[in-house]
Amino acid sequence: MLEEGHLRLRPYRLSDLHALHAALHESIATIGRWQDWCTPAYSLDDARHWIAKTRLAWQGAGDECALVMADRATDELVGSISLNHWQPEYGMANLGYWVRQTRQEQGFATRAVRLLARHALQATDLRRLEIVVAVDNQASRSVAKKAGARFESIARQRLMLRGEPMDAAIYSLIANDLR
């Protein structure tokens, strides 16, 4: 568990099932615009599967380290942050995040990016984290900038959204960016 200010980052628990489902359903207009999986069809079974997958990863059986972003005072699930697409031979991983619609623009994502990045770059063999975000996703780009990530490039057709290629802005974080 990592904590700072009003934020707690912790592993998913089975008790997060209904909160995760509700958070995603309230956020279809904002998160669903950029994530294929955030749709009205997202079910309790989908949420259950995701939680089980994240718990297995914590036991070394997966390739994604996902954490709940929670309000430290109430433990309310406000979003999620993860490290994925690990490339150990290069000391790199991708960092992704989302915040439920009713808790957006309250600093949770920026603080979570900085907190997890600092921890990952100090406690693991990672030396570089990438944030890959759709060019038009201004909210996520703003989080990356506020967290201290450096804009590096526009990668053409780097992402797929609903079966269509999409250009992405690439940001990076290394240890020196977090001082």
Give an overview of the whole structure:
- It is a single chain.
- The chain is an alpha+beta fold and 179 residues long.
- The protein has a single domain (2-178), classed as Gcn5-related N-acetyltransferase (GNAT) (Aminopeptidase), CATH 3.40.630.
- The protein has four helices and eight strands; from the N terminus they run ββααβββαβαββ.
- Strands 1-2-3-4-5-6-8-7 form an eight-stranded mixed β-sheet, sandwiched between helices.
- Strand 3 (65-71) and strand 4 (77-87) form a beta hairpin.
- The protein is globular.
- The two termini are 21 Å apart.
CATH architecture: 3-Layer(aba) Sandwich
Calculate the mean pLDDT score and round it. Answer: 92
Number of strands: 8
Rg on CA atoms, Å: 15 Å
CATH class: Alpha Beta
For the largest beta-sheet, the strand count, sense and barrel status come to:
8 strands, mixed
**Largest sheet, order of strands side by side?**
1-2-3-4-5-6-8-7
Q: Give the helix/strand class.
A: alpha+beta
CATH topology: Aminopeptidase
Helix content: 25-40%
Low-confidence stretches: none
Number of helices: 4
Which series of helices and strands comes N to C?
Answer: EEHHEEEHEHEE
Tertiary shape? globular
Q: What is the total number of structural domains?
A: 1
Find the CATH superfamily.
Answer: Gcn5-related N-acetyltransferase (GNAT)
Beta strand %:
25-35%
- The end-to-end distance, rounded to whole angstroms, is 21 Å
